[in-house]
Amino acid sequence: MQQQLEEIRLIEASAELLYSQAEVEASLDRMADEITARLAGSHPVVLCVMVGGLVTCGKLLTRLHFPLQVDYIHVSRYQDRTHGGDIAWLGRQPENLAGRNILIVDDILDQGYTMQAIVDFCYQEKAAQVLTSVLLDKPAARKAEISPDFAGFSVADRYVFGCGMDYKSFLRNAPGIYAVMP
Ligand SMILES: O=P(O)(O)OC[C@H]1O[C@H](OP(=O)(O)OP(=O)(O)O)[C@H](O)[C@@H]1O
Ligand SMILES: Nc1nc2[nH]cnc2c(=O)[nH]1
Question: Ligand 1 in contact with 106 (CB < 6 A)?
Fold first, then answer.
């Protein structure tokens, strides 16, 4: 553990700040306005993608001032690595999505496999409409044919952490968005 903490400390100390906490908050204000314009009146289910989507979803929720319900889905394809693998479906799966408008909220759309799988799952469950929302879009890394309906920032193809995004399961609590130095 001590060795791991030392690595985390070094990664944090050498990382490049891409977006400050203030810039993230301003971006979330804009996203919330766009989501409200599109979804207010449709009493959507906001589906938080655990674990990374936790911060983005929590911060967005208190900016959405219309009737909605909240649920979560827990999937992972990176675990403690900085490259993706197979999607692991963890824990319970959300129910009662049939006929509903769904807003999936995650931290990042990278290769896109995770979000594509969750969108497919929602439609298999007979959702009426599925929209996607991420704090970060990384279009240069995309492998699946999907783009977000709502996004905070576009980032280059670098591994990032903060605002829910981890480096080897740490640093999710960093208040800005940082890129790991190569
Ligand atoms: O677009 P993709 O290449 O599929 O990657 C995006 C996914 O990767 C991260 O999750 P991760 O698997 O690391 O799990 P976590 O949420 O627990 O960090 C992130 O939270 C997204 O859900
Ligand atoms: N923390 C983190 N998780 C990811 N999942 C997919 N891409 C990324 C990334 O750049 N950072």
Answer: yes
Which residues are CB-contacts of 142 (< 8 A; sequence separation ≥ 6)?
109, 110, 111, 112
What is the model's pTM?
Answer: 0.97
Distance 171 CA to ligand 1 centre (A): 14
Q: Which ligand is nearest to the CA of 78?
A: 1
Instruction: State the total domains in the chain.
Output: 1
Q: Is the CB of 49 under 6 A from ligand 1?
A: yes
pLDDT category at 1 given cuts 50, 70, 90 is confident
CATH code, 175? 3.40.50.2020
Residue 124 contacts residue 142 (beta carbons within 8 Å): no
Q: Residues with beta carbon inside 6 Å of ligand 2?
A: 78, 108, 110, 159-161, 165-166
ipTM value, please give it: 0.98
From atom 6 of ligand 2, which residue's Cα is the shortest distance away?
Answer: 110
**Cα R_g (the chain), whole angstroms:** 16
Averaged over 12-28, what is the pLDDT?
98
For residue 152, is pLDDT > 90? yes
The rounded mean pLDDT for the chain is 97
**How far apart are alpha carbons 24 and 22 in whole angstroms?**
5
Residue owning the nearest CA to atom 18 of ligand 1: 52
Domain of 107 in residue numbering reads as: 2-179
